[in-house]
Write a structure and sequence with these properties.
It is globular and about 90 Å long. The relative contact order is 0.08. The two termini are about 50 Å apart. A hairpin with a 2-residue loop joins strand 13 and strand 14. Strands 1, 2, 3, 4, 5 and 6 form a six-stranded mixed sheet that branches. The chain has a three-stranded antiparallel sheet with strand order 7-8-11, with no helix packed on it. The C terminus is likely disordered. By secondary structure, it is α+β, with helices and mostly antiparallel strands. Helix content is about 20%, strand content about 20%. It folds into four domains: about 100 residues, Ubiquitin-like (UB roll); about 110 residues, Alpha-Beta Plaits (2-Layer Sandwich); about 50 residues, Single Sheet (N-terminal domain of TfIIb), CATH 2.20.25.90; about 55 residues, no CATH class.
Length: about 350
């Protein structure tokens, strides 16, 4: 196909669409290229340097055709420097190495720099258990640090609007939150101040996050710098059960994940569905889950205001339906489209359905 190019990644042949970057192309081959600042739904910043890979292209002769080696394969010329996978598009005949000694050494260096001033907050950090810094430190770090000087201290427990708390010491300056607020939420309100190791994430003066999509930056933060006030210090994520669900709070039907423990729901997060909500959801829908465990919620059938057994409730409903001349079915606004469709089928022919 004219819109597809063939390349080789760690010895695996990959067919990828033109324009695709190397991180996404590697996913096709089942290869992970670690990254922090890159997000498929945001513009490319290229500032974390974690996705460095070695890239080579076929050597071309005077006739502009690949020069073949003794083995009959094209001679590959690798560049003197590594390339960032997030901003390097695929090309025909390209050869990519994601595990070469040069790449491994570069990743170890990036991880060492990121951890130089990072606090040892893992035991009390909400991100523990789903932190990319933890995971990549194990997978790609050196396991030791040569840094002996005192760490740079930055503001902690800083309110970032009414729904989010910021810990600047944990921030790795990936800029995902900045780009999301500007490009997706439509509020350009976050930025970095100062330089070097003293760089700090902050709000523009008098302009803190105040949209219905703010909590998405907690989802995309790869570390524990941004935490949701609603979930902060509630549970360790490895204790929680993940259940796929659908947000019932509007007609969009955002795909979600409910995080629960022992029958109690502690948070709701978006589940990726390109046809519905992509990987985002609004804050109203995200936070409107507490009705599930509300003590005022009916959990047993009642008749005349008094609790009755299920068998008795079913008997009373059956008796009333038998003597009814018509039936009206009232659906719940919190039910899914599919559930309401089945409810409509459950009603008798010609029943009037109140949505």
């Amino acid at each position: 196909m004219a819109d597809t190019v063939k390349l080789t990644i760690d010895g695996k042949e990959v067919a990828a669409p033109k324009g695709m970057n190397l991180i996404e192309a590697a996913k096709i081959a089942g290869i992970e290229v670690p990254h922090y600042c890159y997000h498929p739904k945001l513009t490319i910043a290229g500032n974390c340097r974690m996705c460095l890979v070695e890239v080579g292209m076929p050597k071309l002769g005077a006739d502009k055709k690949p020069v073949l080696g003794p083995d009959g394969q094209p001679v590959i010329l690798f560049g003197p420097k590594l390339s960032i996978g997030c901003n390097t598009p695929v090309a025909e005949g390209m050869v990519v190495l994601t595990r070469s000694p040069k790449v491994v050494k570069a990743r170890e260096g990036v991880m060492e720099f990121l951890l130089i001033n990072h606090p040892l907050d893992c035991p009390i950090c909400d991100q523990a258990g789903e932190c990319r810094l933890q995971e990549f430190s194990v997978d790609y770090g050196k396991g030791q640090s040569r840094f002996v000087e005192e760490k740079v201290h930055k503001p902690k427990r800083t309110p970032l609007g009414p729904k989010i708390t910021l810990d600047d010491e944990r921030c790795i300056l990936c800029s995902r939150c900045i780009r999301f607020m500007k490009e997706i939420a439509g509020q350009d309100c976050l930025g970095f101040v100062n330089r070097g190791s003293y760089s700090t994430l902050t709000c523009y003066p008098g302009n803190e996050p105040n949209t219905n999509y703010d909590l998405n930056i907690v989802d995309i933060c790869p570390v524990g710098a941004l935490t949701s006030n609603d979930f902060r210090f509630q549970q360790r994520v490895w204790f929680l059960k993940e259940t796929k669900s659908i947000c019932p709070n509007c007609a969009t039907g955002c795909n979600t994940v409910l995080w629960s423990r022992e029958g109690i729901v502690y948070r709701q997060t978006p589940r990726d569905n390109p046809a519905v909500n992509q990987c985002w959801m609004c804050d109203y829908g995200r936070l409107n889950y507490k009705f599930i465990n509300d003590p005022r919620r009916l959990t047993t059938p009642t008749a005349g205001g008094q609790a009755v057994a299920w068998a008795e409730a079913i008997r009373q409903v059956t008796d009333r339906l038998r003597g009814a001349k018509g039936v009206a079915v009232i659906g719940s606004a919190r039910a899914t489209t599919e559930e309401l469709f089945l409810l409509r089928k459950l009603g008798t022919a010609g029943a009037y359905v109140v949505p």
